[in-house]
Design brief:
heterodimer; A: about 180 residues; B: about 300 residues; alpha+beta
Chain lengths: ~180, ~300
Amino acid sequence: MANRSGSLSLLDAAAPVHRPDCASLAAEPPMADGLPEKVSDEVIAYGLEARRIYADLKRVIGQTAGLLILAQASGRREAFDLPSLAGARETWLECRDRLGSLSAPSRLDANLRRMAAAHRLVGACLAALQSPRMAEGDPDLTVSLDNLSAAYRQLQAASEHRFGMTMVDFRYSCCNCGIELQK
Amino acid sequence: MSDYSIWVLEYSYVAKYHKSGVLYGAHNQGYVKLPYCYAVIKGNGHVAMVDVGYNDKDYGKHLGDKFGVENWRSPKEVLAGIGLKPEDVDTVFITHAHFDHFGNVEDFPNAKFYIQEREIAKWTWAMSLPDRLRWMLVAVDPGDIVRGVELARQKRLVCIDGPLSNVLPNIDLHVAYDSHTFASMWVEVRNDGKTASEDAWVLAGDLVYVFDNIEGPGGVVDLDKIYVPVGLALGSQQNLVMATEAMMKQVNYEARRVIPIHEERLKDAFPSRIRPDGLRISEICLADGETSKVR
């Protein structure tokens, strides 16, 4: 295996421009492009806010999973102490507030319930990671991973591409031609 | 003497794909077929794969339907074309974390997976950033990262830090930082077992999509051929070109030994056959004693 002595120090060195806690990265209002046509203002308002929450939960899930990989597969126990994990918790708390003030038009109730479930499960994952035992020996990720996997499934079920709520963003990727050709 | 057989197996494709996606600067030059493939390396008692494709179950199927990917077939069906089963695969090299390379780990229950630590670390960082920077996240499914945790818990995911020689006998892993992705790997098979191999094959991942990335049109600079980087670089085109140079150096500048996974014309350069389901098998080389799977 390669020598780690000269390796970069994980996420901190990986962020030469903006660290996750950089003050210039304050939350911005959602973009208003790409919205579906012929839907009510109420649905659009829901979609705009739901998209923010969806995107943040998606990030927190991916980010937390990445940290768990680094901790488990690379033995990088410092992953649990990185500002990234604290940042993930902050984002999760912000989502809780936004979810609390979001109401869904009746036919989108299920969508909101799924996002709320995803949020609850991410919270359970993050809480399990706060155990002092996580930084010792061979951490048991069972509870964290079970909750994280379930959160991903719930959020996946809440995907709604007409609002830009998709797990994989293809718009600028090598595959985006497919959708253009279908128009 | 050849230790390893190598095949490139198509598992789906995009029928009409912007040429500018595979070749930097090829704007308004039409479309090409973009095969989605993975590679199998068999020999020395091992069955290894370079990438695993994506999973067409539930959300993967949605992606395929929505973005024009056609004719997806499972690893069970695809590997059967060369007489193998997913359970036979003991080693997988994940060149990078895009969904069509890292998205189907669940179908290989006995494999150990190798990926660059920095590839995981920098995706993790990118996911912490706000929306206006999310261009970096294109083609990454956080679900693949979640599944990676399960692999790690099972001790089946190895994060490596930089290049690694002899990960399997006479197979080396190389890395190109900040190129197609944050830490894209390429795989070198030294088929004569020599350190300075005269029979090396390079499996390029997405560092090279098509032959023209290696031998592209150079007329504008009065050359027959020049390196032209792929259309999608998360990092820099410069790093892609230098990665191409590194790959070419390893094969003594014999271009046909650098294998581009998304190249439809592999069928013209190597013995190939089209299966009844319309997908291609290309046979790059055969180990001593191995029988052809395309004749």
